[in-house]
């Protein structure tokens, strides 16, 4: 494993424009293109592609194309999770999604962080921080989850919200930035 990939996986600053990381991206590009091909892949073929693309994928997971990711291999999805159209999962760090999760259209799960210093940003330095989504979470359409965020189980995040910090289990959160507006009960 090369130095930039090692640093990326360790959550350290790394240069993303790297030959080894580029090869991993090409692998992802081919698999996403096959998965997203309009009318080209049967449900069985899509399941096979997801199994090859993602780090792990549970039983009865459904992802509606188009779907995009950085690498795919750092994404883990639990059983019976549904991901609607136009999902973007940037997995420079692990993205872990629990079981029975509902993800609306146009949701973004983002792990990369770019350097605030202008010179270092121009030089291509970035790092990444994991995103974790608990079991039975519902992310409404257009939700953006920022790097390093954990969303507790049974939480609902309203459409269009931007989640910039951790959310506890069993709450309804909305807004930009997302804030808890009430506790949910069964």
Supply database-style keywords.
22% helix, 4 helices, alpha/beta, five-stranded parallel beta sheet, 186 residues, seven-stranded mixed beta sheet
Topology record:
Blueprint: H1 3-9, E1 14-15, H2 19-36, H3 43-53, E2 56-57, E3 62-63, E4 67-69, E5 75-77, E6 82-83, E7 87-90, E8 95-97, E9 102-103, E10 108-110, E11 112-114, H4 118-122, E12 125-128, E13 131-133, E14 138-139, E15 144-145, E16 150-151, E17 156-157, E18 162-163, E19 171-174, E20 179-183
Parallel strand pairs: 2-5, 3-6, 4-7, 5-8, 6-9, 7-10, 8-13, 9-14, 10-15, 13-16, 14-17, 15-18, 17-19
Antiparallel strand pairs: 1-12, 11-12, 19-20
Q: Your description of this structure?
A:
The protein is built from four helices and 20 strands. The protein has helices at 3-9, 19-36, 43-53, 118-122; strands at 14-15, 56-57, 62-63, 67-69, 75-77, 82-83, 87-90, 95-97, 102-103, 108-110, 112-114, 125-128, 131-133, 138-139, 144-145, 150-151, 156-157, 162-163, 171-174, 179-183. α2 runs antiparallel to α3. 22% of the residues lie in helices and 30% in strands. The strands form four sheets. Strands 3-6-9-14-17-19-20 form a seven-stranded mixed beta sheet, with no helix packed on it. It has a five-stranded parallel beta sheet with strand order 2-5-8-13-16, with no helix packed on it. Strands 4-7-10-15-18 form a five-stranded parallel beta sheet. It is globular. It is α/β, with parallel strands linked by helices. The N and C termini lie far apart (47 Å).
